[in-house]
Amino acid sequence: MPTYYARANGNVNAAIWATTPTGTAADLFPSFTSADTLVLNGFSGNLNVSMTVGEIRSDSTGGATPGGILTVMASGLTLTANLNNTGNGANGMIQTIGGLASFSLIGNLTAGGANLFRWMANGSTVNITGSITGGTAGNALHIDCANVTFNITGNVSGGAGGQGVGSVANGNIINITGNVTGGATGVGVSTSNNTANITGNVTGGAATNAFGVGVGTAGGSATIVGTATGNVAAGAAVTVAGASLTATRARGAANSTGVGVSHTGGTATVDEIEYGDLGASPTSGLIRFADKPTNVAILYRFGTTKKTLVDANASGLMPAASNVRSGTVYNGGNSTGTMAVPAAGSVALGVPVDNTTGTAILTQANVETALGAFSGGRLANCATVASTGQQLSDALSN
Length: 398
Hints:
The protein is mainly β. The protein has helices spanning 364-372, 385-397, and strands at residues 3-6, 10-11, 17-18, 37-39, 44-47, 51-57, 69-72, 77-84, 94-96, 102-106, 109-110, 117-119, 125-129, 132-133, 141-143, 149-153, 156-157, 165-167, 173-177, 180-181, 189-191, 195-199, 202-203, 213-215, 221-229, 236-240, 244-251, 259-263, 267-274, 283-284, 288-289, 296-301, 305-310, 329-330, 335-336, 352-353, 356-357.
């Protein structure tokens, strides 16, 4: 697992690397592998080609000079590496020039006391595959531009003070497939006039304002396909101030009063709510149920046993009117049955009907009575074997 140190400013595929912090620079780029570590050593490198290494650092590893910046110089590049400035790293250890259309990063981002990955190219698309963790004071992904689409596949969490993803610009779209968690005091994802779409669960952090997701202004929005769960007392997994929010489920904290979703303005809707194990409320503020057949409310009774409340009509728990006796009012007076049920006396003996069995019996007397009804009618005029024979005999004798 070799470690290479930058010894000059320049392109990463040029002669700027050495095997020691004070060594002679050489073109070592062709030998880089996924097991190698690059230390910026206080210099500025240009990412002008796609590159794969194990890790890139800007601290004092191996006696290096802390600091250094790696700048993405061209569109369409892919950097495969874990990024780490948990030492005395520079602000924006990885950053961009303007005018880039796209960039892909495959690797984990772990921030320290300064912002780690600073994106500054308006109107671009960024794909990140890996976990993102805020630092003691720095953001792991610091968005300092507008109208960018970020596609993140991996978990995001806040740090001791820094945010996992922090945006100070407007009009960005942040798509996250993964779980988002607040940190010790840092927010997992903090946005202003941006759109955050999260497919995964969101959990509050260890401090009151260490939200999983914070949407701060009227122009922002967040969509969470997952459960937002509170953590510490007075904390929330998601907080919305003047923006809009939709979430699958809001859940109260398990062992404190932290709420799942806190809302102080705008519009907030959830499909489901679930109280915490000790009864913590899942929501705070003006939050409404979305009008969906899947609406659910889960309550915790004494002893932490759950009770689930559902919309009986929407959930298909009520029988259809055609399956209920005609004229019977049910479903709280909202439905009336239409099914016609014959009386037991009209159904053959022993045949199940309604909540009993039929009582009708066919006897000889019944048959004679029925035949007698035809004695002056059709049966009286019907031919028999005897009458037909007599007619033939009469016809032949003539």
